[in-house]
Amino acid sequence: MGLTEIRTAVKVDLKKPADQQPVLHNRWHPDVPFTAKVKDGEVFKVECVDWTGGQIGNNDSADDVKNIDLTKIHYLSGPFEVEGAEPGDVLVVEIQDVQPFQEQPWGFTGVFDKDNGGGFLDELYPNAAKAIWDFEGIFCSSRHIPHLRFPGQIHPGILGCAPSAEILAEWNRREAHLISTTELKRIVALPPQPQNVHAGSASDEVKEKVGKEGARTIPGRPEHGGNCDIKNLGRGSKVFLPIHVPGAKFSIGDLHFSQGDGEISFCGAIEMAGVITLKLSVMQSGMKDLDMKSPLFLPGPVEPHYGPSKYLTFEGFSVDDKGVQHYMDATVAYRQATLRCIEYLRRYGYSDYQVYLMLSCAPIQGHVAGLVDIPNACMTLGVPMDIFDFDISPTGPVEKMEMGACAVANK
């Protein structure tokens, strides 16, 4: 018996503006119309644009990163109507394959400008920067960060089912409360934004409603997953998602060729457009049976492997770069581990921005080492030494080399 051809349930046009394509949307809302219908247990393909909708070019300038319009993101493919799916069920998503488009075998990593998106280290590195990565089979390399080559663990950054009206209202309530009560002098959450809302094939009336109420796709949320950026969700993985509306209204996008734990520069994976092959199955009454309050996942068997002795590991503690002691703050600790790595690799000729980009997208491992010894949380950042074509071990020679430059924005 011959193999059954797998249909492509959603096709995109890379030459057409994303906001003119009815198979895409960029807000979470239960009223975004279905794009396609799939059967319970069906295997199918989905084409995805990159998360910005094509705003970033394959060039040597980061002006496009600096001036990116963040009211447009993320562009997701869907939502899909899954036959038989009802609220209270669980959608089992099996990721069978992910590939870049043959006609676009490249991706990008960016550092956002502090005043337009920012990132994990934006107080120290406030300017926009970019690296372009070329794909060669499972490997990637960049003209902007030389002496690196590594295999990617290709995965989607975003997948989730639409919220119910009640859950959407709760998201908006609690995020509005954070915005109104924060003492931090920075943007802490993004409320609904009518500007540049795209709701697929919705009527003007529904589109207006989605603009006023729809949740931004920037953060992941416990009730449905969404933008979780888990680098281990590669080929062969299974994700278990709560279903809140009839038909599930499943959407997916933000494909990554590779990513480091934390995706620290915000635009930190190797972002790409491509095709993902999925199998969707419905687990009836799964939310009750699993006592599910947030998604679960089983990682797949495909992952770049480096031996335990092949990681150069940096420690960070809850003392910031100004010498201020924080209490058990894992974010401060991970930031410090990152800075120790930047300082270390700087010795070989890399710029700080090159290392920042590298740590966002290369297969680094971020671990919680300790949360028990007050007042210092301890985090570690492990860099696989074999991704470099020279020795970076502490016992190796230190030779400062000509490393070129990543793309930088005009000031």
Structural summary, described in words:
With 411 residues, the chain is of the alpha+beta class. The chain is built from 6 helices and 22 strands. It has helices spanning 63-66, 165-181, 204-213, 286-289, 330-346, 352-361, and strands at residues 8-10, 24-25, 36-38, 43-48, 76-82, 90-100, 106-111, 129-136, 139-142, 150-151, 155-161, 220-221, 225-227, 238-242, 248-256, 266-271, 274-283, 296-298, 311-317, 365-370, 378-384, 407-408. A hairpin with a 3-residue loop joins strand 12 (220-221) and strand 13. The chain is globular and about 60 Å long. Pfam families: FmdA_AmdA (PF03069). This is Formamidase. InterPro entries: FmdA_AmdA, FormamaseFmdA.
Give descriptors for this structure.
alpha+beta; 6-stranded mixed β-sheet; 411 residues; 6 helices; globular
Précis, in short:
With 411 residues, this protein is of the alpha+beta class. It contains 6 helices and 22 strands.
Structural class: alpha+beta
Shape: globular
Largest sheet properties:
7 strands, mixed
In round numbers, the mean pLDDT is 96
What oligomeric state best describes the polypeptide chains here? single chain
Strand composition percent: 25-35%
Question: Rg, please?
Answer: 21 Å
From the N-terminal CA to the C-terminal CA, the straight-line distance is: 62 Å
Q: How many H/I helical runs? A: 6
Succession of helices and strands = EEEEHEEEEEEEHHEEEEEEHEEHHEEE
Low-confidence stretches at least 5 residues in length (pLDDT < 50)?
none
- What level of helicity do the residues show? 10-25%
Using DSSP, what is the number of strands? 22
Protein name: Formamidase
InterPro entries: FmdA_AmdA (IPR004304), FormamaseFmdA (IPR054833)
Organism: Letharia columbiana
GO molecular function, one term: hydrolase activity, acting on carbon-nitrogen (but not peptide) bonds, in linear amides
